[in-house]
TrEMBL record, chains A, B:
Keyword Iron-sulfur: no
Species of provenance: Paracoccus tibetensis
A Pfam match: DGOK
Transmembrane segments: none
GO molecular-function term, one example from the UniProt record: 2-dehydro-3-deoxygalactonokinase activity
InterPro entries hit by this protein: DGOK, DGOK_C, DGOK_N
Swiss-Prot/TrEMBL GO biological process terms: D-galactonate catabolic process
Keywords, in A-Z order: Kinase, Transferase
UniProt protein name: 2-keto-3-deoxygalactonate kinase
Length: 299, 299
């Protein structure tokens, strides 16, 4: 197989590259911890090294998504304003001023002063999900969960909940660090996870009064320290879903991977919210494949 | 003036000692960063040094409140369960098994499995506030804000909101660190503080969707980076008050000090919640004075 271009998902802390043929099939790959932050000031070298490692010619066309296009990244790929058609995302890719054909896909911005928001990377994941006709709402859970309203291929609105980052900050940098052990992923039927979900789903605004109870319950021997991670996951995922549930006005697609997908699916079920799921593991690659094929088959 | 006893507010990270005469007047004092954590394993030496520094005899009776009575402190002073009469708090002080008469006041616990909670130190502040007849609700804003339902001298229920600690964790250990500058205290009429308050007071459950907007608004040049601290303060204080407002069923007393008191007062006013204020700066000392006079005038 002959690669048509290289697809790169260049995040804040990770780098993944695939060589793709004209049909989107993988004919080589390379990955490493060379995210935007550690690559600052040497983006060309990092890319060249991964191209070589995957066995690609140095002048293969390259399509990049993610934080490499941020202002503090390689070259800024300005945000595309809403509504944004993902099937035309490739038209807004910007060329890196260098030899060869290297392009970076834009992120999306919602320039509403009452609800400003940005994404960078998730737009490519969205493009890589199974397409739908008409309105739908997509939940991409994670460090910064995105809830994205779409109409066919167009993103019309979105919001961000910093659930994963809140979990990390609370469990490492507050008094809750004494009560949330490092633990294997919480199973979605964990009683402490479900009990915490029920508490906050019944009264989402009160989640802020529930956080310290995690610590107090353990001090008073009313809760087991080993359940701390399940308890905190339930509070934060439940609060996210509780905050969004009044706004669910279209068929909901939950697009995630692994244990996090399982926890969100359990939480949505507990909340009585209907949804379908999609595996988002390879969504970035599929989105890059689609956008790249449109760029280089047009050429 | 002859000191009758020494009163000590021994917190996690700070130590304050006053020599008090039989009428509660101050006749000497000493303070330092010798909180429970840095004093671990040498509580007697730290206390003796501050007694000497204040000019007290080494065998003066001592009454302590705060984290020195925690399990990981000097000697555990077990939590007093609710309802707890603060005018009888002194009866539950425990003696440190040492020469001289050194006692530590207990904290309070709410052993309700559906809403477990603990306080240690705030009970003494509450005792030091102007007394009231009948029901009242006291808000003590801070690192861990306490909202305390009382009936005369009895604490009947309370809850904790980790507002100050959330502010620190979000502004130092998440992506918001790029958007929340170190700044002088926010004035209570700051437009960004008031705008953020209005957002979350109107929909407290949605606060989790508002946090990332702080970052996005700055990236999109819709908000000024210098306003980041006022914005985050407004979101978190507004969310605290929004979460508690449905539960305000008694006259509200806001007991705080300095800039934080001003911010909470502005937020309560913005929320249309009636309240009175008390200066909590010396409440711990006054509470210790009351409890100590009851111990050593009974003797």
């Amino acid at each position: 197989m002959q690669p048509a271009f290289a697809a790169v998902d260049w995040g804040t802390t990770s780098f993944r590259l695939w060589l793709l043929d004209a049909a989107g099939a993988i004919c080589g790959q390379s990955a490493g911890p060379d995210g935007m932050t550690p690559s600052a000031g040497r983006f060309p070298e990092v890319l060249a090294r991964h191209l070589a490692s995957a066995g690609a010619a140095a002048d293969l066309p390259v399509l990049i998504c993610g934080m490499a296009g941020a202002r503090q990244g390689w070259i800024e790929a300005p945000y595309l304003p809403l509504p944004a058609r993902l099937d035309r995302l490739h038209e807004a890719a910007i060329r890196v001023p260098t030899e060869g054909d290297i392009r970076i896909l834009p992120g999306l911005c919602q320039s509403d002063p009452a609800a400003p928001n940005v994404m960078r990377g998730e737009e490519t994941q969205l493009l890589g999900l199974p397409p739908a006709k008409g309105p739908r709402l997509v939940c991409l859970p994670g460090t910064h969960s995105k809830w994205v309203w779409m109409d066919g291929p167009a993103v019309t609105r979105f919001t961000t909940v910093m659930t994963g980052e809140l979990y990390a900050a609370l469990s490492q940098h507050t008094v809750l660090r004494h009560s949330v052990p490092d633990a294997p992923p919480t199973p979605p039927d964990h009683p402490a996870f479900l009990a915490a979900l029920d508490l906050v789903l019944a009264a989402p605004a009160a989640v802020l009064t529930r956080l310290f109870e995690l610590r107090a319950g353990q001090l008073l021997d009313l809760a087991a320290p080993r359940d701390g991670d399940a308890h905190l996951s339930g509070l934060l995922i439940g609060a996210e879903i509780g905050a969004l549930s009044p706004r669910i006005d279209a068929p909901l697609l939950l697009a995630g991977t692994g244990p996090l997908l399982a926890l969100y699916a359990a939480a949505l079920t507990r909340a009585g919210i209907p949804f379908t799921t999609a595996d988002a593991a390879e969504a970035s690659r599929r989105g890059l494949a689609l956008a790249g094929s449109r760029i280089w088959s047009d050429a």
